[in-house]
Automatic annotation (TrEMBL):
Probably acts as a transcriptional activator. Binds to the GCC-box pathogenesis-related promoter element. May be involved in the regulation of gene expression by stress factors and by components of stress signal transduction pathways. The keyword Lipid biosynthesis does not apply. Keywords: DNA-binding, Ethylene signaling pathway, Nucleus, Transcription, Transcription regulation. InterPro entries: AP2/ERF_dom, AP2/ERF_dom_sf, DNA-bd_dom_sf. Belongs to the AP2/ERF transcription factor family. ERF subfamily. Its main location: nucleus. It comes from Fragaria ananassa. Pfam families: AP2 (PF00847). Residues 1-20, 114-146 are annotated as: Disordered. It comes from the Eukaryota. One of its GO terms (biological process) is ethylene-activated signaling pathway. The keyword Lipid biosynthesis does not apply. This is Transcription factor ERF7.
């Protein structure tokens, strides 16, 4: 029908909220929080440099709150332990926050190092002159490709 907008899909010009449970602050940090079931309160999950880290922190928290049936941003990266709660029933908000922030901090460190490492490697290649300019209008000779 005309005049109706399609719902936004992940990855399609959706820079403000690429994953569930996170948002971006005005100054560029990504934050994650989750509402406790059957309560009005929220569990603060931290502030991160990358949206992936914030989303992984959210996934950890929602997994521990709702178990294996939780809808995750990264279902292929389930938290270690496999079964939501720690065997003795419900986990406290503080323990969920702790587990989620640990995961988010590790992912943030890896993501930031990867971004920084790639940037540094690109700078080093450019400075050393090992980046060759390629003429995209020319068909390459088979002898040059090796």
């Amino acid at each position: 029908m005309e005049g109706q907008e399609e719902p936004r899909k992940r990855g399609e010009n959706n820079n403000d909220k690429p994953y569930k449970g996170i948002r971006m602050r005005k100054w560029g940090k990504w934050v994650a929080e989750i509402r406790e079931p059957n309560k009005r309160s929220r569990i603060w999950l931290g502030s991160y440099s990358t949206p992936v880290a914030a989303a992984r922190a959210y996934d950890t928290a929602v997994f521990y709150l709702r178990g294996p049936s939780a809808r995750l941003n990264f279902p292929e990266a389930l938290p270690v332990g496999g079964g939501g709660c720690d065997g003795d029933g419900d986990m406290s908000a503080a323990s969920i926050r702790k587990k989620a922030t640990e995961v988010g901090a590790r992912v943030d460190a890896v993501e930031t190092a990867m971004r920084g490492g790639q940037h540094k490697a690109a700078k080093e290649m450019k400075a050393s002159g090992s980046v060759d300019r390629v003429d995209l209008n020319k068909i390459p000779d088979p002898e040059e490709i090796s």
